[in-house]
Each structure stands twice: as structure tokens, then as C-alpha cells.
Predict the structure.
Amino acid sequence: MKFRCVLLCAGLLACGFSMSAQKRSQPDPQGVLSYSLPATSLVLEVEAVQENFYAGPYARYASKYLGVEARQKDSRSYTISKVSLTPYVEADHGSRYLLDTGDERTDAAFLRLTSMGLVAGSDGNFGTESVWRFPSPVSGDFSEIGLTSNLTSEAATLYRNVKNESAYSRVAVRQEIIVEKSEEKRAAETAAMIFDIREKRYQIVTGDTDATYSGEAMGAAVAELTRLEKEYMSMFTGYSEYQTQKMTFEVVPERDRENQLYVAFRLSDSAGLLPPENVSGKPVILEVIPQEVAAAAAEDKKTYKKSRSSVMYRIPALCTVRLTDGMNVLFQCRVPVYQLGVESSFPLNVEVQ
């Protein structure tokens, strides 16, 4: 009995899938031309740079011994470096029409259909991209400049009195013990080595040295000293590693939507570029501002009789597309968007009087 129930359920499911597939693949009537109006989709190709920053162990002493400010904590951040927007024309399957081509008065030879089943115009916008790049923020970096130490010494007189039986006297006690150098002491020694390297490099470049350097030897010596300096400087200023992340997002403007604001994608400092539905990142908004399409002016010179058959078409709206991260405008350009424009009809044969 249980086996029969399983077979019956399987048969019902198969019939359901068959009927559903038949419904989806039901062809249009023969002798009738089916077409769709065009719609515009906006494809965004976004590139972000990931920075993994590792703070130096002597970062908190950078100001004291080198006179520069340094980041003191490890961090990860993402910055948008490039955005390209490409509008594509596709079939709007929510606006399909049937045209009876069996009528003798109907001449549809002027129609040009694409593989997507829409009426294509010769001036259709099929993939002209606009690319914006964003330079990395640059701030003054003086960490590798300076030949003299950031510290100086001042003279001070200190007294230590030791009480004896009848009077006070000074007693000098010498004692040597082995102790671990403090972190600040190691930072001070590293800073001293940095200034020593800079002084030696300055002497080689200016010729103020007993050794003679010329040609490739001078270049090699200066390059090696520079490498050593950067190596020691990373103990204070830290270092960064960079990676590039690329993703593609698509926005299809909706015709009947009052608020033409769309979450194009999201950006997170920990995960980078994210899809719009992932709310863990900061939203990046794409705003589409359509311009009004002027009404057609009537011609008084000719009088037209209404045609029995006509083809629907769309006049695209020129839209200002603006990409913002909430405060800053990242991208702005003008794009024709078909579904936000005006729908009109084209008579297939017109009798002119």
C-alpha cells in the first residue's frame, strides 16, 4: 500500500512538472508576430582595493624619537578605486505585444528583431561604458626625512645625601646588574640607527666620506642604505599589504517606481564588496533622475487617417545616473533608459490625404 502511494505521488509530481513546463513553453499563435519593448539595465563593474595594515611594535614611540605620527593598531579597510557603468538594452518581458501579420494591409518588413525578441533600433545603446577612477588619498609623509635626532639633552644637577653618625656625606656606589631592555630603550636604539643610516647616505651622496664611491658602486650603496632605513622605519610606521577585489552588479530601473533610488551594492571594511541584500555593509546608492520627454508637436500641413495596425515602441528618457556612498558622489553620467521613457505607436500603413 505504501509503495502504491509513493508511485501515485511521483506520478502526480511528474504530471505537475509536465503541465508547468508546457505552460511556460506554450508558443505564440501562428501567423502572429510577438515582440517586446526594449528596457535598459545598468551594469556596474566595481573595483575595490583592500588594505591590510600591520602596526609597528614601536608605533607609540614614533612621535617621540622620530617626530612623526604613526598608526598604532592593525586594521583592514576597503576603498573603491574604479567604477564603470555600461547600459545594456534587453527585452522587457513585462511589455509583450502581438502583431497580426496576416492582414494584407500590414507590412512588417521594416521591423528588425533581435535574438531577444524585441524591436531593435539602429541607434540602440548596446554597451557603451563610462569609466571613473578614484585616486588614492594622498597626505604628506615626512617619516623618512631628517638627519638629526628628535631628542635633545639638558643639564641638571642632582644631589644624593647619605647620613653618617655625625654628618651627611656623599657616597658613590657602583653596581652592575643585567636587566632586559625596555621596549622604549629598544625603540630609542632603533631610531638612533635610522639617523645613523641617513647620515651615512648623506655623506656618500655629498662625497663627505673617506671611502670613494662612483658609478654603480655609489648607486648600490645608496640603495642598500635606503632598504635598511625602510626596514627599520617599519618598526615605527608599520606596513600595508594590498589586494584588489572586482565584482559586477546590475540595476534595472522600474517604470512605476516613484523613488528612483536603488542600493547598487554594499561596502564593508571587513568583507569588501557585497551584494545589495547583504545588510552587513554600507549601502552605495544609485540614483536615476529621468528628464521629462516633451509632448510631440502636431503637424497642420498633413492629415492622417488612423491605421488599423500599429507597432508599439518606446522613446527612452535621458537620465542622470548618480552613484553615492551616502555623502560623496562617486559617479555621475547621462544614460538613456527605455522603460522610464514614453510609449507610443507606429502605424504600419498610413493613408495620407
User: Anything to note?
Assistant: The first strand starts at residue 32 and ends at 54. The CA atoms of residues 49 and 244 lie 5 Å apart.
